[in-house]
Amino acid sequence: MLRRNSFRAREEDDKDWAIRPAVETVLENLDVFFPDVDLDKPVFDLPTPAPSTPSPVKEAGPSPPGVTERSASASSKSIRVVAQDRKRAMQKAGRNVVTAVSGLGSNLLRRKSTKLFGARIEEVTSAQLGRISTTIRESPDDDPQNFSYKWIKGDLIGRGTFGHVYIGFSVNTGETIAVKQVELPKSQHDKDDARTKGMVQSLKAEIELLKDLDHPNIVLYLGMEQTPEHLSIFLEYVPGGSVGRIVRTHGKFEENVIKFFTYQILEGLEYLHSLGILHRDMKADNILTDQDGMCKISDFGTSKKSTDIYSNNENMSMQGSIFWMAPEVIHNKNMGYSAKADIWSLGCILIEMFAGRRPWSDEEAIQAMFKLGAERLAPPVPPDVTLSPLAESFLNDCLQIDANDRPKAYQLRDNDFLKLESTWSFTQTDLYRYVLVLLARSNVDADSPPRRQMADDEARRRAISSHPSG
Protein backbone atom coordinates (compact mmCIF):
# COMPACT_ATOMS: atom_id res chain seq x y z
CA MET A 1 0.00 0.00 0.00
CA LEU A 2 1.37 3.39 -0.95
CA ARG A 3 1.81 5.89 1.84
CA ARG A 4 2.61 9.54 2.07
CA ASN A 5 5.78 8.62 3.99
CA SER A 6 3.84 9.04 7.24
CA PHE A 7 3.59 12.29 9.17
CA ARG A 8 7.37 12.38 9.50
CA ALA A 9 7.75 13.59 5.91
CA ARG A 10 5.35 16.48 6.45
CA GLU A 11 7.07 18.22 9.32
CA GLU A 12 7.31 21.50 7.42
CA ASP A 13 3.63 21.61 6.50
CA ASP A 14 1.66 22.70 9.57
CA LYS A 15 -1.66 22.19 7.80
CA ASP A 16 -1.13 18.43 7.76
CA TRP A 17 -0.66 18.16 11.54
CA ALA A 18 -3.07 17.26 14.29
CA ILE A 19 -5.67 15.29 12.31
CA ARG A 20 -5.81 11.89 13.92
CA PRO A 21 -7.60 9.05 12.11
CA ALA A 22 -10.55 7.27 13.66
CA VAL A 23 -9.74 4.26 15.85
CA GLU A 24 -11.59 1.97 13.45
CA THR A 25 -9.41 3.24 10.61
CA VAL A 26 -6.27 2.51 12.61
CA LEU A 27 -7.43 -1.01 13.49
CA GLU A 28 -8.39 -1.80 9.91
CA ASN A 29 -5.15 -0.44 8.46
CA LEU A 30 -2.43 -1.49 10.89
CA ASP A 31 0.08 -1.89 8.06
CA VAL A 32 -0.32 1.80 7.26
CA PHE A 33 0.01 3.18 10.78
CA PHE A 34 2.53 0.63 12.13
CA PRO A 35 4.76 0.09 9.08
CA ASP A 36 7.81 -1.08 11.02
CA VAL A 37 6.09 -3.82 13.04
CA ASP A 38 5.60 -7.48 12.12
CA LEU A 39 1.87 -7.61 12.78
CA ASP A 40 1.52 -11.34 12.12
CA LYS A 41 4.24 -12.61 14.44
CA PRO A 42 2.72 -14.76 17.25
CA VAL A 43 2.51 -12.85 20.50
CA PHE A 44 -0.05 -14.38 22.86
CA ASP A 45 -0.31 -17.97 23.94
CA LEU A 46 -4.00 -18.77 23.60
CA PRO A 47 -5.57 -20.64 26.54
CA THR A 48 -5.13 -24.42 26.46
CA PRO A 49 -8.41 -26.33 26.98
CA ALA A 50 -8.64 -28.04 30.37
CA PRO A 51 -7.94 -31.81 30.19
CA SER A 52 -11.29 -32.65 31.73
CA THR A 53 -13.15 -30.85 28.96
CA PRO A 54 -13.14 -32.95 25.82
CA SER A 55 -13.00 -30.96 22.60
CA PRO A 56 -15.08 -32.10 19.65
CA VAL A 57 -13.04 -33.78 16.93
CA LYS A 58 -12.79 -31.65 13.82
CA GLU A 59 -11.04 -32.06 10.54
CA ALA A 60 -7.78 -30.17 10.47
CA GLY A 61 -8.00 -26.99 8.49
CA PRO A 62 -6.00 -23.85 7.90
CA SER A 63 -5.62 -21.50 10.87
CA PRO A 64 -7.12 -18.01 10.61
CA PRO A 65 -4.67 -15.27 9.56
CA GLY A 66 -2.51 -14.31 12.52
CA VAL A 67 -3.21 -17.51 14.48
CA THR A 68 -0.37 -20.01 14.36
CA GLU A 69 -0.50 -23.67 15.38
CA ARG A 70 2.16 -24.39 18.03
CA SER A 71 1.16 -27.86 19.23
CA ALA A 72 -1.82 -30.13 19.42
CA SER A 73 -3.18 -28.20 22.40
CA ALA A 74 -1.87 -24.65 22.09
CA SER A 75 -1.72 -21.85 19.57
CA SER A 76 -0.88 -18.17 19.63
CA LYS A 77 -2.30 -15.00 18.18
CA SER A 78 -0.71 -11.95 16.64
CA ILE A 79 -1.15 -8.20 16.99
CA ARG A 80 -3.40 -8.25 13.95
CA VAL A 81 -5.75 -10.67 15.71
CA VAL A 82 -5.64 -8.55 18.89
CA ALA A 83 -6.74 -5.58 16.77
CA GLN A 84 -9.53 -7.58 15.15
CA ASP A 85 -10.78 -8.65 18.58
CA ARG A 86 -10.76 -5.03 19.73
CA LYS A 87 -12.66 -3.91 16.65
CA ARG A 88 -15.35 -6.54 17.20
CA ALA A 89 -15.73 -5.48 20.83
CA MET A 90 -16.11 -1.83 19.76
CA GLN A 91 -18.69 -2.73 17.14
CA LYS A 92 -20.65 -4.75 19.67
CA ALA A 93 -20.75 -2.04 22.33
CA GLY A 94 -20.10 1.21 20.53
CA ARG A 95 -23.17 1.85 18.41
CA ASN A 96 -25.57 1.47 21.34
CA VAL A 97 -23.46 3.87 23.38
CA VAL A 98 -23.29 6.42 20.57
CA THR A 99 -27.05 6.36 20.13
CA ALA A 100 -27.68 6.62 23.86
CA VAL A 101 -25.65 9.78 24.34
CA SER A 102 -26.59 11.63 21.16
CA GLY A 103 -23.32 11.24 19.34
CA LEU A 104 -20.85 11.54 22.21
CA GLY A 105 -20.21 7.84 22.52
CA SER A 106 -16.47 7.95 21.95
CA ASN A 107 -16.11 9.46 25.40
CA LEU A 108 -17.93 6.64 27.13
CA LEU A 109 -15.92 4.08 25.24
CA ARG A 110 -12.73 5.77 26.37
CA ARG A 111 -13.68 5.18 30.01
CA LYS A 112 -12.57 1.61 29.37
CA SER A 113 -8.99 2.81 28.85
CA THR A 114 -6.51 0.95 31.03
CA LYS A 115 -5.00 3.11 33.75
CA LEU A 116 -1.32 2.27 33.74
CA PHE A 117 0.05 3.98 36.83
CA GLY A 118 1.81 1.33 38.90
CA ALA A 119 2.02 -1.20 36.06
CA ARG A 120 5.26 -2.24 34.40
CA ILE A 121 5.23 -0.60 30.97
CA GLU A 122 7.48 -1.60 28.10
CA GLU A 123 7.76 -0.49 24.50
CA VAL A 124 8.14 -3.56 22.30
CA THR A 125 9.97 -3.58 18.98
CA SER A 126 9.17 -5.93 16.15
CA ALA A 127 12.30 -7.97 16.92
CA GLN A 128 11.10 -8.55 20.49
CA LEU A 129 7.58 -9.70 19.69
CA GLY A 130 8.43 -13.35 19.28
CA ARG A 131 10.17 -13.46 22.67
CA ILE A 132 7.37 -12.15 24.89
CA SER A 133 4.59 -14.65 24.29
CA THR A 134 5.32 -16.63 27.43
CA THR A 135 5.19 -13.64 29.78
CA ILE A 136 2.57 -11.32 28.31
CA ARG A 137 -0.94 -11.16 29.72
CA GLU A 138 -3.95 -9.78 27.92
CA SER A 139 -5.52 -8.08 30.93
CA PRO A 140 -4.49 -6.67 34.31
CA ASP A 141 -7.37 -8.70 35.75
CA ASP A 142 -5.32 -11.88 35.19
CA ASP A 143 -2.80 -10.83 37.84
CA PRO A 144 -3.09 -7.15 38.86
CA GLN A 145 0.09 -7.24 40.96
CA ASN A 146 2.25 -8.49 38.12
CA PHE A 147 0.64 -6.89 35.09
CA SER A 148 3.10 -5.85 32.39
CA TYR A 149 1.75 -3.47 29.74
CA LYS A 150 3.35 -3.91 26.32
CA TRP A 151 2.92 -1.38 23.54
CA ILE A 152 4.20 -0.69 20.05
CA LYS A 153 4.95 2.69 18.49
CA GLY A 154 3.40 3.71 15.19
CA ASP A 155 3.06 6.84 13.06
CA LEU A 156 4.09 10.28 14.21
CA ILE A 157 0.90 12.35 14.63
CA GLY A 158 2.04 15.52 16.35
CA ARG A 159 4.92 17.52 17.72
CA GLY A 160 5.48 19.78 20.69
CA THR A 161 8.11 21.95 22.32
CA PHE A 162 9.72 19.04 24.13
CA GLY A 163 8.78 15.98 22.13
CA HIS A 164 6.64 14.20 19.59
CA VAL A 165 3.29 12.40 19.77
CA TYR A 166 2.87 8.98 18.20
CA ILE A 167 0.02 6.57 17.66
CA GLY A 168 0.52 3.71 20.08
CA PHE A 169 -1.12 0.30 20.25
CA SER A 170 -1.48 -1.88 23.32
CA VAL A 171 -0.35 -5.40 22.57
CA ASN A 172 -2.25 -6.50 25.70
CA THR A 173 -5.66 -4.94 25.15
CA GLY A 174 -5.83 -3.72 21.55
CA GLU A 175 -6.37 -0.13 22.67
CA THR A 176 -5.20 2.72 20.48
CA ILE A 177 -3.38 5.30 22.59
CA ALA A 178 -1.44 8.51 22.07
CA VAL A 179 2.16 8.48 23.27
CA LYS A 180 3.98 11.73 23.98
CA GLN A 181 7.65 10.80 23.80
CA VAL A 182 10.45 13.06 24.99
CA GLU A 183 14.12 12.36 24.33
CA LEU A 184 16.14 12.39 27.54
CA PRO A 185 19.65 13.84 27.81
CA LYS A 186 22.44 11.34 27.17
CA SER A 187 25.68 13.10 28.07
CA GLN A 188 26.51 14.35 31.53
CA HIS A 189 26.75 17.86 30.13
CA ASP A 190 23.19 17.62 28.84
CA LYS A 191 21.99 16.14 32.13
CA ASP A 192 23.50 19.09 34.01
CA ASP A 193 21.96 21.64 31.65
CA ALA A 194 19.46 23.74 33.63
CA ARG A 195 16.92 23.92 30.81
CA THR A 196 17.01 20.16 30.22
CA LYS A 197 16.68 19.39 33.93
CA GLY A 198 13.79 21.83 34.17
CA MET A 199 12.06 20.22 31.20
CA VAL A 200 12.22 16.73 32.69
CA GLN A 201 11.15 17.97 36.13
CA SER A 202 8.25 19.87 34.54
CA LEU A 203 7.05 16.78 32.68
CA LYS A 204 7.17 14.64 35.79
CA ALA A 205 5.34 17.32 37.77
CA GLU A 206 2.70 17.43 35.04
CA ILE A 207 2.21 13.68 35.26
CA GLU A 208 1.96 13.73 39.03
CA LEU A 209 -0.57 16.56 38.90
CA LEU A 210 -2.83 14.98 36.30
CA LYS A 211 -2.61 11.23 36.82
CA ASP A 212 -5.83 11.07 38.84
CA LEU A 213 -7.92 13.44 36.70
CA ASP A 214 -10.98 11.78 35.23
CA HIS A 215 -13.48 13.93 33.35
CA PRO A 216 -15.17 13.64 29.93
CA ASN A 217 -13.79 17.03 28.82
CA ILE A 218 -10.20 16.43 29.92
CA VAL A 219 -7.79 14.29 27.91
CA LEU A 220 -7.15 11.25 30.08
CA TYR A 221 -3.60 10.60 31.23
CA LEU A 222 -2.98 6.86 31.43
CA GLY A 223 0.58 6.41 32.61
CA MET A 224 4.27 6.81 31.87
CA GLU A 225 7.39 4.82 31.03
CA GLN A 226 10.96 6.00 31.51
CA THR A 227 13.93 4.41 29.79
CA PRO A 228 17.49 5.72 29.50
CA GLU A 229 16.54 7.20 26.13
CA HIS A 230 12.96 8.44 26.49
CA LEU A 231 10.23 9.56 28.82
CA SER A 232 6.92 8.36 27.39
CA ILE A 233 3.59 9.74 28.55
CA PHE A 234 0.51 7.68 27.66
CA LEU A 235 -2.67 9.58 26.83
CA GLU A 236 -6.18 8.88 25.73
CA TYR A 237 -6.30 8.79 21.93
CA VAL A 238 -8.70 11.40 20.54
CA PRO A 239 -9.49 10.97 16.83
CA GLY A 240 -9.98 14.26 15.03
CA GLY A 241 -7.94 17.39 15.61
CA SER A 242 -7.51 20.53 17.64
CA VAL A 243 -10.12 23.27 17.48
CA GLY A 244 -7.30 25.64 16.52
CA ARG A 245 -6.28 23.56 13.54
CA ILE A 246 -9.88 23.28 12.37
CA VAL A 247 -10.38 27.05 12.78
CA ARG A 248 -7.38 27.73 10.56
CA THR A 249 -8.54 25.41 7.79
CA HIS A 250 -12.33 25.71 8.02
CA GLY A 251 -12.72 29.33 9.07
CA LYS A 252 -15.25 30.80 11.48
CA PHE A 253 -17.80 28.56 13.22
CA GLU A 254 -21.54 29.05 13.38
CA GLU A 255 -22.82 30.34 16.72
CA ASN A 256 -24.53 27.14 17.84
CA VAL A 257 -21.32 25.16 17.37
CA ILE A 258 -19.49 27.79 19.44
CA LYS A 259 -22.09 27.42 22.19
CA PHE A 260 -21.73 23.63 22.09
CA PHE A 261 -17.93 23.72 22.29
CA THR A 262 -17.80 26.51 24.88
CA TYR A 263 -20.13 24.69 27.27
CA GLN A 264 -17.92 21.61 27.18
CA ILE A 265 -14.75 23.64 27.68
CA LEU A 266 -16.35 25.27 30.72
CA GLU A 267 -17.31 21.86 32.09
CA GLY A 268 -13.67 20.84 31.88
CA LEU A 269 -12.45 24.13 33.36
CA GLU A 270 -14.92 23.94 36.23
CA TYR A 271 -13.61 20.46 37.04
CA LEU A 272 -9.98 21.60 36.96
CA HIS A 273 -10.67 24.68 39.08
CA SER A 274 -12.64 22.61 41.60
CA LEU A 275 -9.44 20.63 42.16
CA GLY A 276 -7.33 23.76 42.51
CA ILE A 277 -5.67 23.44 39.09
CA LEU A 278 -4.99 26.39 36.77
CA HIS A 279 -4.44 25.36 33.17
CA ARG A 280 -2.48 28.54 32.22
CA ASP A 281 -2.31 27.85 28.48
CA MET A 282 -5.89 27.75 27.31
CA LYS A 283 -6.16 28.28 23.55
CA ALA A 284 -7.94 26.58 20.66
CA ASP A 285 -4.82 24.56 19.80
CA ASN A 286 -5.09 22.93 23.23
CA ILE A 287 -8.72 21.87 22.79
CA LEU A 288 -9.12 18.56 20.97
CA THR A 289 -12.39 17.60 19.33
CA ASP A 290 -13.45 14.29 17.84
CA GLN A 291 -15.84 13.48 15.02
CA ASP A 292 -18.82 13.75 17.35
CA GLY A 293 -17.94 17.24 18.57
CA MET A 294 -16.73 16.08 21.99
CA CYS A 295 -14.20 18.64 23.25
CA LYS A 296 -11.32 17.80 25.58
CA ILE A 297 -8.83 20.14 27.21
CA SER A 298 -5.25 18.98 26.62
CA ASP A 299 -1.60 19.98 27.13
CA PHE A 300 -1.08 20.60 30.83
CA GLY A 301 2.63 21.36 30.57
CA THR A 302 2.30 24.75 32.28
CA SER A 303 -0.54 23.87 34.66
CA LYS A 304 -0.16 24.60 38.35
CA LYS A 305 -1.98 23.76 41.55
CA SER A 306 -3.17 26.48 43.92
CA THR A 307 -4.63 26.24 47.40
CA ASP A 308 -7.04 29.11 46.67
CA ILE A 309 -7.86 28.93 43.00
CA TYR A 310 -9.63 32.27 42.63
CA SER A 311 -7.24 34.33 44.77
CA ASN A 312 -4.04 35.82 43.39
CA ASN A 313 -0.99 33.63 43.91
CA GLU A 314 2.22 35.67 43.85
CA ASN A 315 4.20 32.54 42.96
CA MET A 316 2.55 32.39 39.55
CA SER A 317 5.05 33.26 36.80
CA MET A 318 4.22 34.42 33.28
CA GLN A 319 3.13 31.26 31.48
CA GLY A 320 1.07 30.55 28.41
CA SER A 321 0.81 31.92 24.88
CA ILE A 322 0.94 35.70 24.44
CA PHE A 323 -2.18 36.22 22.31
CA TRP A 324 -4.35 34.36 24.84
CA MET A 325 -2.80 35.80 28.02
CA ALA A 326 -4.75 37.89 30.50
CA PRO A 327 -3.43 41.39 31.36
CA GLU A 328 -2.57 40.39 34.94
CA VAL A 329 -0.37 37.54 33.67
CA ILE A 330 1.78 39.90 31.61
CA HIS A 331 1.86 42.80 34.07
CA ASN A 332 1.23 41.40 37.54
CA LYS A 333 3.46 43.72 39.66
CA ASN A 334 4.50 40.70 41.77
CA MET A 335 0.88 40.18 42.80
CA GLY A 336 0.44 37.01 40.78
CA TYR A 337 -2.88 35.94 39.32
CA SER A 338 -5.66 33.40 39.74
CA ALA A 339 -7.78 30.97 37.74
CA LYS A 340 -9.60 34.00 36.34
CA ALA A 341 -6.72 34.09 33.82
CA ASP A 342 -8.17 30.87 32.32
CA ILE A 343 -11.51 32.65 31.93
CA TRP A 344 -9.84 35.45 29.94
CA SER A 345 -8.22 32.83 27.70
CA LEU A 346 -11.63 31.25 27.15
CA GLY A 347 -12.83 34.62 25.83
CA CYS A 348 -9.90 34.62 23.42
CA ILE A 349 -10.90 31.14 22.23
CA LEU A 350 -14.39 32.49 21.53
CA ILE A 351 -12.87 35.21 19.34
CA GLU A 352 -10.93 32.49 17.48
CA MET A 353 -14.09 30.50 16.78
CA PHE A 354 -16.19 33.55 15.79
CA ALA A 355 -13.49 35.13 13.62
CA GLY A 356 -11.76 32.09 12.17
CA ARG A 357 -8.36 33.39 13.28
CA ARG A 358 -6.42 34.00 16.48
CA PRO A 359 -7.06 36.95 18.81
CA TRP A 360 -4.93 40.01 18.11
CA SER A 361 -4.74 38.78 14.51
CA ASP A 362 -3.50 42.16 13.25
CA GLU A 363 -0.77 42.46 15.89
CA GLU A 364 2.62 40.90 16.47
CA ALA A 365 3.37 39.40 19.88
CA ILE A 366 5.28 42.41 21.21
CA GLN A 367 2.47 44.79 20.19
CA ALA A 368 -0.14 42.55 21.81
CA MET A 369 1.92 42.42 25.01
CA PHE A 370 2.07 46.23 25.14
CA LYS A 371 -1.66 46.64 24.58
CA LEU A 372 -2.45 44.01 27.21
CA GLY A 373 0.07 44.95 29.86
CA ALA A 374 0.52 48.71 29.47
CA GLU A 375 -2.72 49.86 27.86
CA ARG A 376 -4.89 47.23 29.57
CA LEU A 377 -6.90 46.47 26.43
CA ALA A 378 -8.88 43.39 25.46
CA PRO A 379 -8.39 41.82 22.02
CA PRO A 380 -10.80 43.51 19.58
CA VAL A 381 -13.57 41.66 17.80
CA PRO A 382 -12.66 41.85 14.09
CA PRO A 383 -14.92 44.14 12.01
CA ASP A 384 -16.11 41.24 9.83
CA VAL A 385 -17.62 39.48 12.88
CA THR A 386 -21.17 40.24 14.02
CA LEU A 387 -22.06 39.01 17.49
CA SER A 388 -25.54 38.41 18.83
CA PRO A 389 -26.38 40.41 21.99
CA LEU A 390 -26.01 37.31 24.17
CA ALA A 391 -22.68 36.40 22.58
CA GLU A 392 -21.36 39.92 23.03
CA SER A 393 -22.39 39.97 26.68
CA PHE A 394 -20.79 36.58 27.33
CA LEU A 395 -17.55 37.63 25.64
CA ASN A 396 -17.44 40.88 27.60
CA ASP A 397 -17.82 38.92 30.84
CA CYS A 398 -14.81 36.77 29.95
CA LEU A 399 -12.67 39.73 28.90
CA GLN A 400 -13.15 42.02 31.87
CA ILE A 401 -9.84 43.81 32.45
CA ASP A 402 -10.21 43.54 36.22
CA ALA A 403 -9.99 39.83 37.01
CA ASN A 404 -12.30 40.30 39.99
CA ASP A 405 -15.09 41.27 37.58
CA ARG A 406 -14.84 38.06 35.56
CA PRO A 407 -17.26 35.26 36.45
CA LYS A 408 -16.03 31.90 37.66
CA ALA A 409 -16.29 28.86 35.40
CA TYR A 410 -19.38 27.42 37.08
CA GLN A 411 -21.13 30.79 36.84
CA LEU A 412 -20.43 31.13 33.13
CA ARG A 413 -21.68 27.61 32.49
CA ASP A 414 -25.23 28.74 33.36
CA ASN A 415 -25.12 31.77 31.04
CA ASP A 416 -28.09 32.14 28.68
CA PHE A 417 -25.74 32.41 25.71
CA LEU A 418 -24.89 28.71 26.02
CA LYS A 419 -28.45 27.43 25.79
CA LEU A 420 -29.22 25.34 22.68
CA GLU A 421 -32.54 24.21 21.27
CA SER A 422 -33.33 20.62 22.24
CA THR A 423 -33.62 19.69 18.55
CA TRP A 424 -30.14 20.97 17.66
CA SER A 425 -27.49 18.36 16.85
CA PHE A 426 -23.82 18.74 15.99
CA THR A 427 -24.20 15.98 13.41
CA GLN A 428 -26.41 18.28 11.33
CA THR A 429 -23.80 21.03 11.00
CA ASP A 430 -21.41 21.91 8.21
CA LEU A 431 -18.52 21.62 10.67
CA TYR A 432 -19.42 18.01 11.45
CA ARG A 433 -19.29 17.14 7.76
CA TYR A 434 -16.02 19.02 7.43
CA VAL A 435 -14.43 17.07 10.30
CA LEU A 436 -15.58 13.82 8.70
CA VAL A 437 -13.77 14.74 5.52
CA LEU A 438 -10.63 15.66 7.49
CA LEU A 439 -10.74 12.34 9.31
CA ALA A 440 -11.35 10.38 6.14
CA ARG A 441 -8.57 12.09 4.22
CA SER A 442 -6.00 12.22 7.00
CA ASN A 443 -2.65 10.83 5.84
CA VAL A 444 -4.13 9.76 2.49
CA ASP A 445 -1.98 9.83 -0.62
CA ALA A 446 -4.09 11.35 -3.37
CA ASP A 447 -2.28 9.08 -5.86
CA SER A 448 -2.99 5.95 -3.87
CA PRO A 449 -6.24 4.16 -4.80
CA PRO A 450 -6.14 1.91 -1.71
CA ARG A 451 -5.78 4.88 0.64
CA ARG A 452 -8.46 6.83 -1.22
CA GLN A 453 -10.79 3.84 -0.96
CA MET A 454 -10.02 3.57 2.76
CA ALA A 455 -10.96 7.24 3.20
CA ASP A 456 -14.17 6.90 1.22
CA ASP A 457 -15.19 3.84 3.24
CA GLU A 458 -14.51 5.71 6.48
CA ALA A 459 -16.61 8.71 5.38
CA ARG A 460 -19.51 6.45 4.43
CA ARG A 461 -19.36 4.56 7.72
CA ARG A 462 -19.38 7.78 9.75
CA ALA A 463 -22.29 9.18 7.76
CA ILE A 464 -24.31 6.00 8.27
CA SER A 465 -23.54 5.73 11.99
CA SER A 466 -24.58 9.35 12.60
CA HIS A 467 -27.98 8.72 10.99
CA PRO A 468 -29.05 5.25 12.19
CA SER A 469 -32.08 3.76 10.47
CA GLY A 470 -35.37 3.62 12.30
TrEMBL record:
Residue ranges that the Swiss-Prot or TrEMBL entry lists as coiled coil: none
Domain Protein kinase, chain residue ranges per copy: 151-418
Matching InterPro entries: Kinase-like_dom_sf, MAP_kinase_kinase_kinase, Prot_kinase_dom, Protein_kinase_ATP_BS, Ser/Thr_kinase_AS
GO biological process, one term: cell integrity MAPK cascade
One GO molecular-function entry: ATP binding
Positions of the UniProt region annotated as Disordered: 45-77, 447-470
Domain of life: Eukaryota
Assigned keywords, A-Z: ATP-binding, Kinase, Nucleotide-binding, Serine/threonine-protein kinase, Transferase
Biased composition (Basic and acidic residues): 448-461
Keyword Chloroplast among UniProt keywords: no
PROSITE patterns on file: PROTEIN_KINASE_ATP (PS00107), PROTEIN_KINASE_DOM (PS50011), PROTEIN_KINASE_ST (PS00108)
Binding site for ATP: K180
Protein family (similarity comment): Belongs to the protein kinase superfamily. STE Ser/Thr protein kinase family. MAP kinase kinase kinase subfamily.
PANTHER family linked: MAP KINASE KINASE KINASE SSK2-RELATED-RELATED (PTHR48016), SERINE_THREONINE-PROTEIN KINASE BCK1_SLK1_SSP31 (PTHR48016:SF48)
Protein name per the record: Kinase-like domain-containing protein
Species, as recorded: Leucosporidium creatinivorum
